[in-house]
Amino acid sequence: MTATQDRVADRHPARDRVAEAVPGLLVALLVAGVATALGSLVPIVGGPVFGILLGALAAAVVPGLREQRWAPGYGVASKPVLQLSIVVLGTGLSLQEVVRVGVQSLPVMLGTLTVALGGAWLLGRRLGIDRDTRTLIGVGTGICGASAIAATTAVIKPKQTDVAYAIGTIFTFNIAAVLLFPPLGHLLGMSSHSFGLWAGTAINDTSSVVAASFAYGGDAGSYGIVVKLTRTLTLIPIVIVLAFLTARREARQNAGGAGFSIRTMPWRRIVPLFLVGFIAAAALDTLGVVPASWHPALSTVGTFLITTALAGIGLSLRLADMRRAGPRPLLLGGVLWIAVAATSLGLQAATGSL
């Protein structure tokens, strides 16, 4: 390349970065398209889970997809696209409905969230699971499965293997919940309202809440969905705290252990821009700016973006790295799942809503 060509290239760094990202992003979109189709055929699994599974499988069986030239596109899928997905999903939250349902279900919601996050921290440390993996499993169990893991991934920047473990763990116990919760609910003689609250607070992924609560019958389905969406809003304070802790840790590492001051930290490190977008999208929906007729399409777009992000993460995975962690993350997820389900039932009984 001549000196003149070098100068021309230097004038267009943004365009060059876009050109580098296109091939890998197209691969992630292709995997996401196949995953979405499979998710519609098997909704109990869902597109996002198929996205990370197919991405990891494609990277394992097609060695060329592991080449460096694809990496920039995988990075775009697993970060900017992931952040955009959270903003789009915010358009499905009506803050008025959230407040109405939240007041009724707040004790159960906060109790299960505390058990999930506290249990992940305590038991995860005892099991020797690294910080990022136990954090992802905790927020995935306590808040909203893949969406919570996606939002948390955007601020704590974990290894791709950590994300894969968390998604796999959440998926395993989502399937178990869909199969076990309805017969258990009937065995316990739960009303539709109490079962919807149980499903909405103790099952992680939205698609699994829908499957279990509608299978139960009555108005459990509609109530379970609203509880689940209300539970999603707890992402806001949790992600802000995690972003602050991550930024503080990085600042101390960069300063060689010197003192940390919140005044010198850029506000975007404490309140990520995508989280501001999420809140703004929910506010617009509450004000009626987002027509109700748009909700199904926006939900589909948001889910597809999350699927694309997880496909990018899957394509970046190396299965050998995952095997080294062993069964401990799955054990943590199982214990947390049982603890959260039992806590939800116990708090409903204690508050007279069972």
Question: What this model shows, in words?
Answer:
The structure is a single chain. By secondary structure, the chain is an all-alpha fold. 79% of the residues lie in helices and 0% in strands. It has 16 helices and no strands. α4 runs antiparallel to α14. The chain starts with a helix and ends with a helix.
In DSSP terms (H or I, runs of 4 or more residues), the helix count works out at: 16
Overall residue-averaged pLDDT value: 80
- Percent of sequence in beta strands: under 5%
So what's the oligomer here?
single chain
Major sheet details: none
Measure the end-to-end span: 73 Å
Short description:
This protein has 16 helices and no strands. By secondary structure, the chain is an all-alpha fold.
List the SSEs and their pairings.
Blueprint: H1 3-10, H2 13-41, H3 47-61, H4 71-89, H5 95-126, H6 131-156, H7 160-187, H8 192-202, H9 206-216, H10 220-232, H11 235-254, H12 267-270, H13 273-286, H14 295-316, H15 319-323, H16 328-351
Throw out a few tags for this protein:
globular; mainly alpha; 354 residues; 16 helices; single chain
